[in-house]
Each structure stands twice: as structure tokens, then as C-alpha cells.
Amino acid sequence: MVMATTASTAARTALSSVTLEVSDPEAARRFYRAFGVDTRIRLRASEAQSTGFRGFTLALTVSGPATVDGFFGAAVDAGATVLKPAAKSLWGYSGVVQAPDGTIWKIATSAKKDTGPDTREIDGVVLLIGVEDVKATRQLYTDRGLTVAKSFGGKYAEFAPGQAAPGQAGPVTLALYKRRALAKDLGVPVDGTGSHRVVLGGTADAFTDPDGFAWEAAASPAPTPS
Questions:
Q1: Are 171 and 126 in contact (CB under 8 A)?
Q2: pLDDT of 11 above 80
Q3: pLDDT tens for residues 16-31?
Q4: pLDDT tens, position by position, 130-184
Q5: Are the C-beta atoms of residues 209 and 215 closer than 8 Å to each other?
Q6: Which one, of 65, 15, 77, 66, lies nearest residue 40 by Cα?
Q7: Whole-angstrom Cα distance, residue 128 to residue 92?
Q8: With 80 as the cut, is the pLDDT of residue 9 above it?
Q9: 103-139 b/e (C-beta count within 10 Å ≥ 16 → b)
Q10: In sequence order, what are the residues at sequence separation of 6 or more whose Cβ sits closer than 8 angstroms to the Cβ of residue 226?
Q11: Out of 70, 74, 112, 141, which residue is the most buried by the measure of CB atoms under 10 Å away?
Q12: Does the pLDDT of residue 61 top 90, yes or no?
């Protein structure tokens, strides 16, 4: 399969913030602070109904297995549910947890052996959303100004990261994956209904994509800091 790569130095539309909609912002804030990712996401109070798989995961990429274990342990100690214990795989070493608010997090490294101690440092954050048609959604987003960084046919696409929103420690990279394949990778049933309970920020105007993921304008007022 051919991988397409696009790069540009021109100004572009990109994902600048990720807002999780939670029923108890204070409890969620405590969890994410203990987990160590509170500066990477925003929180917003919401009672939107949601059942089953919400169709996305937030993935942390870190330097090695010891750091995976550090974040994984911190999440579990703070109240997360283990969906997949941290273990070696074909692609490296990773584990999957579900936060008390329902958000699924994957912590991963491409390294299979420890080459250093737990740094508790995050190399990158990826918002991976599950869609029915990767090619169509990729085209929709490029038409709206996002720049494709990697593309593997109709199976996976990744967009160039933008600047982090004010108060956010670093940018979040947006990627697309087939919904069924994403659920399988996370170890959860694919079925789910209702709100995704995540809002993406960074486009010129508010819109909702064909899979129900909501975007808001980059200039929208910031939610309550996390």
C-alpha cells in the first residue's frame, strides 16, 4: 500500500484544541491532573446522552515502556478502568484505559525494551476518531483547510498538527481510522449511540462531520480550564 505524505509551510487550518464533555468537571479535573494530561485537554460540563463506544480515543506517545507503565499506573490509581493491560505488541508497547468520564486513552511507545526510566513526559497526543469512510472524511477535512501529513489509502489518515490552544501544553494531532478497526484495537464493542462527548476546535466555523464529530471555531471562548 502506498503512503502519501503532504507537507506545507503555508498557514493552514488544523486541530488546535480538544474539549471533553463530562458530567462532573471537578471530578474529571482531579482525574486528569493525577493522570498527568490535564494541560493537554479542556473540559466542559455536559449531560449529553451517550452509550457504548464513543468512536474515538486519545493516544499518548511516550519514549519507552517505563513511561507507558508510569502513565498507565497513574490513570488506574486515579480511578481508570483497564481495557487492555500494558504489553508488548507488533508495533511496540502499549496499554488502554478508560477514564471515569468514559473517555478511552491509549498510552504507547514504539520501543519494546526499556532504555531509560519513567520520564512522565509526553512526546505527542493523537486524537484518533473512528469513521465509516476514511477517504471521504479525509477529503471533507482537506476541503476545509486541513493538511494531510500521512495517508494509507482508505484505512488511515493523519493531519498536520497546528498550534496548541492558549493554556494547552502542546498540539494534538488529528487522525482518522475505520471505526470498527479502532474499536477492535481498543478492545471494546463497536456499538455506541448518542453524543461522542468530544468537541474539536480549530476551524473557521462550527460544523459537524458525517460521523457526528463536532467542530467549533478556533476563536470560540475557552471552556472552564482543566
A1: no
A2: no
A3: 999 999 999 999 999 9
A4: 999 999 999 999 999 999 999 998 999 999 987 777 777 888 999 999 999 999 9
A5: yes
A6: 15
A7: 18
A8: no
A9: bbbbbbbebeebeeebeeebeebbbbbbbeebeebbe
A10: 25, 28, 29, 32, 38, 39, 41, 42, 43
A11: 141
A12: yes
What 3 state SS string does 6-60 have? CCCCCCCECCCEEEEEECCHHHHHHHHHHHCCCCCCEEEECCCCEEECCCEEEEE
Q: Dig out the grid coordinates for 56 from the structure.
A: 474515538
Measuring CA to CA, which residue among 192, 213, 58, 199 is closest to residue 137? 213
Question: By mean pLDDT, which of 11-15, 186-190, 220-224 is the weakest?
Answer: 220-224
